[in-house]
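Blackboard transcription, Thursday session:
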Amino acid sequence: MDRLIEAIENTQNPSVVGLDPTEALVPPQVVASFADEVRDSVESPEELPAAQLAVAYFEFNRTIIDAIADIVPAVKPQIAMYEALGPAGVDVYTMTCEYAAQQGLYVLGDVKRGDIGSTAAAYAHHLSGVAGGESSETFDPWHEDAVTVNPYLGTDGITPFVEAAAAADKDIFVLVRTSNPSSSELQMLDLADGKKVYEHVADLVEGWGAETVGSHGYSRVGAVVGATHPEEGRALRARLPPTFVLVPGYGAQGGTAQDVAGMFDEQGSGAIVNSSRGIIGAWKKTGKYSESMTADEALGLVADSARQAALDMRDNLRVAVYR
Amino acid sequence: MDRLIEAIENTQNPSVVGLDPTEALVPPQVVASFADEVRDSVESPEELPAAQLAVAYFEFNRTIIDAIADIVPAVKPQIAMYEALGPAGVDVYTMTCEYAAQQGLYVLGDVKRGDIGSTAAAYAHHLSGVAGGESSETFDPWHEDAVTVNPYLGTDGITPFVEAAAAADKDIFVLVRTSNPSSSELQMLDLADGKKVYEHVADLVEGWGAETVGSHGYSRVGAVVGATHPEEGRALRARLPPTFVLVPGYGAQGGTAQDVAGMFDEQGSGAIVNSSRGIIGAWKKTGKYSESMTADEALGLVADSARQAALDMRDNLRVAVYR
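(Written on the board underneath:)
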């Protein structure tokens, strides 16, 4: 986790921008501006909207990345938004990751993969890449510095990711206590031994990371803990000293800087807070958007609004965390 | 689940062939035969092996599909094997799904997706496709009849998939008791109320499907229960009458026809058993392979061996299940 922690220190900003585009978050004139470009690239007319959205998502993401790359340490593209468009969307996911990495950002791929051991080994190529054959270079198609992983299948579904992370100087984040309302249906169940299910998972997570603690005291196996659960987050911070925490659910889902403060350690490290719609959709709340804008004007508004929202979030977190 | 059940009845074969290619499972001369074809399609030399494997996987899959399409009802491509090659692999995953569907097979996409509600809605486009804009057709980039889903996030991570399945006459299968050794670390924990975690999940699964029971008595929300857990499988069959069961772990992972028999209902319905390596890797166990074979000869051996292995599995299941 050292690279992420150092990127946070360099920016004095423990936040990550979620690059989760949807059709509603991209100004329509930006989407429309790609109509001609994609027309010859599709095989049948029903493919046009997905192809057009895919290229618009990349332009939108590039605009956001350029606007925030000097003030935030990391981005977290959510692959579901891209898979929703089919393989063309997956291409744009990888292009987004590559572009963000080129701009110096730590790229946290929110893919929530999880499977049995032999299959997890295949997914772990997200981190390890593919051997390059006669080329001495490894081919890294995904360009991710970390991925999120689901714990439901236990240790043998996690080990391949941990090994790939250690070999490639990368990290993983395991779902522990997710931000959504119904997460309690499973995660908050009381076990016979007195623990909650999520506490049991948390203890597994600490074990999975034990061999990979870096120079800042945190292992390569982080935990996902929603900002919507401030008390459990505080308890987990105390329970898992070597476990870095990724905190979704800030902003649009209701979490505040005060809610997440308890997930940081005494030095103001140990956690990074994600905001997606609050940053990339900030342009919709400015009152400055107009349908008559050109695509470039709309992207300019997207950029300015995203940067301001990212600065506001940074400043709010600094006040709450660097106490 | 009606379409799958009818496909099983038509073939009298409750088995599904896992299309999970790996480099070790594709004869090397088949991979080598695509060296020239891909050379111009890559941007840098380290991409060559992945690009070459991707096209070889499709040729391999097509060979298997042609060899078994008249005797099995369904295939289950495991997307991890394709993601391991990057976006080019994902393309081949969708091409494989499309080709299998064209041959009349039910396509069960083993993607094990799971996320919070708004993100699950994006993943659910795997089933619903993308609106086709001015075209009246919906664009279906994934060509899946069903997907596997992870329950760790609770109801709001599942509902979008159930709604998409109902709208598109498709299905989902939720992980309940997976086949891998360490699955017990979480799934077998004792809850304070006396249930095991997997039993609690099983009860959630039954509830998630309750509104979607079809004409054969099974809902659109199936459960994944490993062949390596015959006693729990038998208990789940009794516990969840309207829940169809997908059974991985047969063959290479150790499950036998007797182990899975208890997961079927009294009419010999209610479950489908997956075999991956046992079918697609059957050529390696024949003793007939030779490095001097041409690519076409090797694919011929792959086809014959896969068909024979699929017939053997079908016959073993018929004896054990249609009792």
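Lecturer's comment: Chain B has a mean pLDDT of 96.
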